[in-house]
Amino acid sequence: MTPFPHLQTAVLTDAAAEMRRRFPGAQPRAGLILGSGWSTALRPFTERKTCPASAIPGLGNATVAGHPGQIILADCQGVQTLIFQGRRHWYEGEGWLPVVLPLFLMKSMGVRQVLLTNAAGGIRADLEPGDTVLIRDHLNLMGDHPLRGPHQPLWGARFPDLSQVYDPAWQRQIREAAAPMGAPLKEGIYAALSGPTYETPAEIRMLAALGADLVGMSTVPEAIVAASCGLKVAALSCVTNKGAGLADQLLAHDEMLTQLQSAGERLASLLEAVWRRLSHE
Questions:
Q1: How far, in Å, CA of 121 to CA of 214, rounded?
Q2: Is residue 63 exposed (0-12), middle (13-18) or buried (19+ Cβ within 10 Å)?
Q3: Is 279 a catalytic residue?
Q4: 67 included as an active-site residue
Q5: How far apart are CA 132 and CA 250, in angstroms?
Q6: Where does 58-161 show beta strands of DSSP type E?
Q7: 18, 92, 94, 272: which one is catalytic?
Q8: Residue pLDDT, tens place only, 13-70
Q9: Among residues 67, 142, 190, 269, which one is catalytic?
Q10: Which member of 18, 26, 54, 91 is catalytic?
Q11: Rounded Cα–Cα distance for residues 34 and 85 (Å)
Q12: Which 3 state secondary structure label does DSSP give 85?
């Protein structure tokens, strides 16, 4: 097997063809990738059609709790949306293809802008569990890069510019949507590490010194690929815990999912407000 299957045209076109077969006539304008526990925010979306992610060549089954592994074609505020309910991760050990393929599929289906979501650990002192944070920039500390390998023109330029990977206009829409909601939408820089272990207290101190406000194990590869292939990208984190060494309790995935569950209705209301603004474009 080629070491870079995500860069092979045949793999990408086979996956896109299966998407068109599964969702005939679909014309999604927006895309949404739901991170750990974010399925609780789906209330505003009306499902049209769904299929398991494993039915699409190259995606495979989700292996992490809180990631159901479904692709949903849905409507919200009149905006047809392609939703990946759960994501694949680099630490699952299956390479970049299942991680970044959703972005190519969105692009091939006509999506113009995508919102990435995740659960994250808070590093900055004012970030508390339950806070929603708009990612304004990132640090790729995963030890690899999703565009490494032979150049694949379908992904965009050989040397993509990432000075504005998170689209300013898309971010402004999200800020405006969140403004009337009462709970402040904070902003920050997200550091992506490979996982699957949580960080050590020393690593959290290092990340703080580097300027990171949040830490997690996803989102950055998808943001890089989405921006490279011409999609407008924005990203939201829900803070589920303080970073290691910043609070008394040990870190556990189940407790983070519980935090997302309690924030579900607030996150759903935010997505509904964001999609209402999209509908006026």
A1: 6
A2: middle
A3: no
A4: yes
A5: 22
A6: 70-76, 79-85, 113-122, 132-141
A7: 92
A8: 999 999 999 999 999 999 999 987 788 899 999 999 999 999 999 998 877 766 678 9
A9: 67
A10: 91
A11: 5
A12: strand
The stretch 230-247 carries a mean pLDDT of 90
- Cβ neighbours around 266 below 10 Å, total: 16
Parallel/antiparallel/unpaired status of strands 232-242 and 113-122? parallel
Helix (H, G, I), strand (E, B) or coil at 46: strand
User: Which residues are within 8 A (CB) of 85 and not within 5 positions of it... i.e. 6 or more apart?
Assistant: 34, 39, 42, 67, 68, 69, 70, 71, 72
How much is the pLDDT for 244? 77
Query: Helices (DSSP H) in 110-219: which residue ranges?
Result: 168-178, 201-210
Q: What share of the chain is helix, strand, coil (3-state, %, to 5)?
A: 35, 25, 40
Q: Measuring CA to CA, how many Å separate 42 from each of 13, 29, 38, 242, 273? A: 29, 17, 8, 25, 13
The secondary structure element, H or E, covering residue 9 is helix 9-22
pTM: 0.94
Residue found by looking up tokens 């402040």 in the block: 184
d(CA 209, CA 194): 19
